[in-house]
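Checklist before submission:
- one chain only
- standard amino acids only
- sequence pasted in full

Submission:
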Amino acid sequence: MKILFDQNLSPKLVDRLQDLFPDSKHVSEVGLESESDFRVWDYAKEHGFSIASKDSDLSEIGMVRGFPPRVIWIRRGNCSTADIEQLLRENSANILNLEESAPFGILLLS
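Returned file contents:
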C-alpha cells in the first residue's frame, strides 16, 4: 500500500515509514500542498494512494464519493511526528488490511 500524507502531517513520515509503505508521498512532493481536499482526493484515486490525514473533511468526502481511495483518519491533537509514526507502525496490519476490506473505506486511529 502506498499512502499520500496530507498537508497536516509531516513530510518526514514518507522516509520514516518507507519500510512499511514504500512509494508513499506527501502532498508537497506532488504539488498539492495548496490544493483543495477534493483535488487531493482525486489525485489519490487516480494514482492508487490511500490518504492519511488529521482532517475530517477527507473522511466526509469518502462518505459521499465512495472508496477508493481509502482514508486513514488520525484523530490525535498536537503531537510529534514520532508519535504519529509510532501510531502508524502499531496499526500497520490494520492499515494494510484496509485495502482489502471492500466495504470499509475509513480507518480511525487515535
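Reviewer check: The longest strand covers residues 50-53.
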